[in-house]
What we know:
343 residues, 4-stranded antiparallel β-sheet, elongated
Amino acid sequence: MSMNPDPIPAIIPATPFIHDEPLWRRPAALDRLATGQSRTVVSRWCGTGSGIREVTAQAGDFHHTIGIALRHMDIAFLVAGRPIHDGRVLPGMLQASGPGEPLRAVFRGPYDMLHLHLSQGLVAECLEQAEGCPHAGEISLADPRFSRDLVIERLAQSLLMAEEAGAALGDLYAESIAIAIVTRLLGLQTNARMRPARREVAALPKWRIKRVTEYIDAHLGGPVTLEELAEATGLTRMHFAAQFRTATGYRPHEYLLRKRIERACDLLGTSDAALVDIALSVGFQTQAHFTTVFKRFMGETPHRWRSAQRTRVAAGARPGMMGTEYRSAPPRSCESTIPLSGA
Length: 343
């Protein structure tokens, strides 16, 4: 008796699970979310034109949308009339929109975005799993501004690769990736909430500031180190430097330089001492260094400043001291170029 061979199973072609968007964020399959036929719909919005395209969309009342950029783009993006982004978007950057939000975008040139439309039930389920209890109240996936996360970027790429490979069970695969992306977003939110806030640095008390100024005045003609200033206040270098800046607005070595220049102004206005002698007496090792720092603080060289002061005195004006003639505070970007111990 002959036996029939087992029938060869028919090869069912994989159905594409990344849907086209004839209208921005509105693929035809989006109705499946409203009817409960699906919890996830993935779609793609792309165009190669070089012109400007303005689009609007009203997000559904029962689903969230995550947009992930697939190429460099130039976009203006508004949520409920509020500008969220205006400028370049890099591949991998994402933007999350909640239910019912009116959206508007202006694409300047080519565009390509992957959109994950997620039912409110799916997002709520992920949130309940993350928090271990039912969630009550409004659910928000993320800040509406564009951001970037490497994990989500790779998950989005896996969707594209599965689509290109014609993966079977596409809808199930898409939902699995969507759950992973939502879980990642919720995890990022939780980490942000749990991240400890930066502690405010206390200001150095006045009595300790007095100790610092007294020490600097007494040692202005020689090298003064950060360690010595901190020791004068009874603090570590790190704590002293942070508290001193909070109290005065200046780093310790910047304040030291200001005191040196202030003393130099006194000597320039009241004595005929040579510039090199004044430079050495206020703690500078060379006249060239003194001239450079003086000009940065006062806006002119010591010689020109002294000449101007003598002209003013001859005209009957009071000699200009640091408090009246100081033109501007030194740029803070220059502070680190002058070490405390080498001034």
